[in-house]
Amino acid sequence: MPRETEHAVSVNFGCPVAKTVGVIGGKWKGVILYHLTTGPRRYNEIRRTLPNITQRMLTLQLRELERDGIVHREIYNENPPRVEYSLTPLGETLRPLLDFMRDWGIFYGEQGCEPVTTTSKSGKDFC
Fold this sequence. Notes:
The protein is mainly alpha-helical. The protein has six helices and three strands. The protein has helices at about 15-25, 30-35, 45-50, 55-65, 90, 95-110, and strands at about 40, 70-75, 80-85. Strand 2 (about 70-75) and strand 3 form a beta hairpin. Mean pLDDT is about 85; it is low at about 1-10.
């Protein structure tokens, strides 16, 4: 049996919570998904909503969400091409979780608490 060092981190990916965090965890995915609950959005609409995310990171996060079956990417045959992102039926099942996270964030703020990660170095909100 391999010996774990004191710096090793063990994550049980059989755990349902670990699976959920693996799909929607991170700094941006939850916020992207929350904004998609209002309906389909074009790439630049999402980008304007999240001014602190880099173009590369937004593309990466959207691709991962698409790969995991949470987000649908629709390419319209127009000139210039139009691309829209929306929640898939599987992604729609996250709506209650995203609403609960929003409500909990409001509750947390009402307690006088402010998480360290609510703003970027520039002081702008993530949402």
